[in-house]
Amino acid sequence: PLGLKESVLPTQRSSLSNAGGNFFMAGVGFSFIFSWLLMLLVLITFVLGGNTYMIVCESWRSQQLFQLLDTPGLIPGFNLSELLGQEGGTTNFSEMYRQCQRDAALWQTLHLDQSTSLDEVLNISKQYTGEISVGFEKMNITLSPISLLNQSQRDLLLNASRAAQPPDFTPTLEQLDHNMTQRSLLDLAAELEQLADKEGTDVKENLKADAHSLRELDKEMQMSFSGPLQSLKESIRLVQSGAAQLEAQTKAALDKASETQEFLKREMVNIIKNETWAFLEELLGFFETYISWAKTRLMEDVARCKPIAQTLNNVETITCDYILDSLNAFWFSLGWCTFFLLPSIILAVRLAKFYRRMDIADVY
């Protein structure tokens, strides 16, 4: 437009205007020469980007890709269930992907319990209890003779129980029940008073004074010694009753000692075996608890596969949202360029004659 002047005849147009017209025609020529390359590039990128996006990305988001992978016979000779040693064939890629998204363990995801039974592998009771029982049945326990009391000790105890018999306290108790003294002080005081009635005045007063002193002494003795005497009599009776039973109790204790010795001699081996077996059962219980814990951890916690699902999701995001989207935007832009190439050719051809210098001027 800078070199084009409306009042100038077509045969006298400037070189600048003529160059513009030549560039229009050169563009048309280059378009015819190289447009097939542009079309081919658009076609290739469209086929690769568009089909890959539909086949991979769309089918991934709709889970159709996993359903396709789960189709039997898709890959000749490949069977995931047989590869994992499963007879039922319940493992597939769709289920594995969903399990991994829930952060399940590989044991649950791959259904390894169908190919390997942890109960059989980790069953120590089945493997070792039978051997332990047979070993216990064959075990022979030999103990040295157990003697609680030998014969000399028995005789010593019997002799001691017989020698411990106290003397007969019956006369003493009878005397204590009647009087604390050998004769009654009150009787003696009465005799002194009878004797005072027969004697003279001087002796009479002395005898009555002595009788009064004896009565006071008897009263004081009754008040002072009644309690201790009662305790003494009870102690004497208790000693007599206990001493009477001492020999019988000693014989009963010796009989029980003999029974205990016979029981230990007869049952000690079985007692040792039973207690040892109870201890081993407790140890086996500890091992079973540990194995149960280990089995639970292996089935539920070990090797969680959520990172695998996240990795696949990241690969899908990078491939679809970054690479394929950019590729599709590229061929889409080139496609529009190719689409507008035909109108640009027509427009360039139509405009060229208004810019180029003409050899013959048209007559209007």
From TrEMBL:
InterPro entries listed in its UniProt record: Prominin
Pfam families for the chain: Prominin
Residues passing through the membrane, by range: 23-48, 329-349
Family, per entry: Belongs to the prominin family.
Domain of life where this protein originates: Eukaryota
Keyword field contains Methyltransferase: no
Listed PANTHER family: PROMININ PROM PROTEIN, PROMININ-1-A-LIKE
Protein name according to UniProt: PRM1A protein
GO molecular-function terms, A-Z: cholesterol binding
Annotated localization: Cell projection, Microvillus membrane
Species, as recorded: Cochlearius cochlearius
Positions in coiled-coil regions: 229-274
A single Gene Ontology CC term: cilium
Keywords tagged on the record: Coiled coil, Glycoprotein, Membrane, Transmembrane, Transmembrane helix
Membrane topology classification: Multi-pass membrane protein
